[in-house]
Structures are given as C-alpha cells and as structure tokens.
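A sample copied in:

***
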Amino acid sequence: MPAAIDVGSNTVRMVIGECRDGQAQPHLCQRRITRLGGGFSKELGLAAASMERTLDALRAFSAELRTHNITEVRAVGTAALRNAVNRQQFVERVTAETGISIEVISGDEEARLMTKGVLSVIQPLPQSALLFDIGGGSTEFVTACAGRAASQRSFHLGVVQLAEELPDPVQRGIYIEAVIDAFLASPDVADFPLKHAQIVGTAGTMTTLAALFLELREYVPERINNQRLELDWLRKLRARLDRLTAEEREALPGMEPGRGDLILPGLDIALRILKRTGQQQLKVADAGLMEGVLLDLCGN
C-alpha cells in the first residue's frame, strides 16, 4: 500500500491508502500545521524554527510508515522549498533523520497533481472548470475542460506570505488582484469561458471555509467535497472574522487550529477570484495535491 506526503508551506499532510475507481481510498490520514514558510527570507531561506517544526511532523510520519510497513512513498515539497536557498540542507537532513526523501516539485507539476486530486471528487464532473489551490507560499490556477487540464499557472501568492509580508488589508487586496489579473490576462486563459465555468477551490483555506459554513466540530472530508459556498455568505463571513482576534476565530466551530491569522488572507483570495470571474458561488474539494500524488502512485 503506497503513501503520499505533501510538505507544504503551511501544512504537512500524509495519506496511506489505495485507489479504487479513480479515487483515493485513505486508510490513514495525518496533518499538522508547521508553517514551514514562516519567517522565510530570500537571503537565508527557511527559518530554523520552521524547519524544526516540520521535521518533528515528518519524524512522526516516518514512525507511522514503519508501523504500517509502508515502503512505497512519494513526498513532495512545494513553494517554501522551491524558493529557499537552504532547501538542499533541509531535504538532506529530513532524509538522514526520517528516511523520507522529499522531491521539490515545480509549480506546473504541483498544478497537475492538484488537478488530478480535485477532479477525482467533484461530482458531477463539470464541462469546464477553474480550479485553484491556495497554499502557504503559492496559489495554483488550472483551467480544465472535460476533466483535463487546459492550462495551469503557479503564482507567488500564499497565505503565510501574505500574512507576514502584507498585513495591511488594502495593500494585500491590491497585490491579490494584480496576481489574479495577470492570470486572467494569460493568452491561454483569454478564450476560456470563465463566466460559465465551475469554480472549485481546494487546500486548507477552502476546506476550513466549508467547515465553518457547516459548523463542523469534527472534520469529515466527505461533507467538504462538493460543498457550495455563496459569494454573499463569504462576504458576511469576512466582515465577521475581521472583528475577531486570531484566538477568537480559532474558537469557532470548523476553524482549524493554527489558521486564525491566515484565514483572512486566504478568504481575500477566494473573494477576489469570484469578483474577477463574475461568479456568485464556488465548490470546495477536500482532495487536492496529496490525493493526486497517491493517484499517481496507483497508476491512475
């Protein structure tokens, strides 16, 4: 039985499972918010504390892999590792201390795997869709037609990056809109029927928003997949969360611990995607990059 590990800029996740009928069938899922991209600098790369938090999570994952006798593992690293000058030292240390070999993937590969994971759970499969994955250090955009990716782009637009580098909501909004406009102006997106496409969001921000909508006190992935969120509700939630402290936000049913200061930057991205595409609602997918990695391992 294979295992997939997603070493993200904010969250580290692992799934041990199999695949059936084109869908990942998890036997064990674990996740930790380690904020690998926290305290990042262009000159020094990953911060020591961020690496240690992530290494702690990977040590625990490694122990689970040994307990279940898992030998087929693919671990992928995303934006924080792509951009870090000290990524090789960290990757080598992870391998030495846990036996887990991290493959730092490109933004295009991240988008491809995310598309595979998302489309495996969206029902019914839309004729055209705009998929987006809001991570800690980047956001991937994919246009898809009839279940296949038509175009994909990765941008330096992540919730950890926005929270730390652009705390002012006005400046943050300007930056977000500039990135989305750059995507929409891409030649391969210009002729895509965005106004008629299904908008689908995945990753921690979006699944947390769906969990807040459902007021889940216990996270249930099956309830998150295909959950619709209306623009009007998202706007009202934005106003409500803005009046709360990070600690107060984390006390809300459905809010993931450690995401209290990150939910507004992520919500701002989602709101501006709907604004720029002229859409009134979106769907949420719990499945994404990690599930795409598992499906790849299964040969799907």
Notes: Residues 48-67 form the longest helix (20 residues). The domain at 3-107 is CATH 3.30.420.40 (Nucleotidyltransferase; domain 5). The CA atoms of residues 117 and 292 lie 4 Å apart. The first strand starts at residue 3 and ends at 7.
